[in-house]
Amino acid sequence: MSVLGRSVFGLGSWNTWDRMDFEDAARLLRTAVDAGVTLFDVAHYDFGPHAENSRTDILFGEAVREAGIARDDYVLCGKLWLWDYPRSGFAEQLETSLGRIGTDYADLVVVGDYRERPDIPRVVTEVAEQVRAGRIGGWGVNNWLAADLDLAYGFAAREGLPAPEFAQLKYSIARRSMAEGEYYGKHIASGRLILQASDVFEGGVLLGNAAPARKIGADVGAIRQSIVDTSAELGSIAAEFGATRAQLALAFCLAYAPVANVLFGVSRASQLADNLGALDLARKHGTEIRTAVDHLWLDREVNPDGTW
After folding, report:
1. Fewer beta carbons within 10 angstroms: which end of the chain, N or C?
2. Could you write out the DSSP letters of every residue in 230-265?
């Protein structure tokens, strides 16, 4: 199994650690690791639409050390951005991002999405160079065009280079087409590509927050208002299972076999404790939950040609 699957849950860094009191962040990280949540998605947010000059990665590194968490005790999933690539190359990006966290390597990296299609063979080659250098252990993709993913697999096979092993995709009760649709789905169904579910709460919208104050993920397909409109029904379904909305949303993802890891952000220990309750819920009622919310798949018709 990929190192991604060593922790069923992962904690994300975007808009998280820099919104918390430092001591609270350190305690939360310690609590997470002690509970078996040992994967952390941490990025340097200073590229493209994420040019935010955020200190969340620096704060994460400081909080991990304050919490007394050894580097071998957690899996670090970093990011390589394509917004300014190749002007900003992967070696340079890793030197910056790993330095800000205070570590020498990332167990995994997600090679991020893009506006303009990059030179895929060059991307695969440069990722392989960083694998050989010991700076990263493996890699995945985030919202690539399906044709570019196919190209990456073909080039990696011909050249004997490491291919993408996972995809970090928007995946939730409301958004399923990218992971379960024809284009990514063929790689996921075959077992070639494992799934890391992200944005599983739609930035809090699925949990009943119709207008989050903080920045949240893109509204692919312009379906967010439809998600807002169905949020109350989701709460009713959760109540039928004796669960919170967060637990229902997480259990839905966990009950899908290709999901190796579910990524979410929390800023309070109580949120983490509530989310952990999804594990038992998925074991007991996973199949029933997926059936109960099937009609809330709201992006069935979004991007049917596989372009994202």
Report:
1. N
2. HHHHHHHHHHHTT--HHHHHHHHHHTSTTEEEEEE-
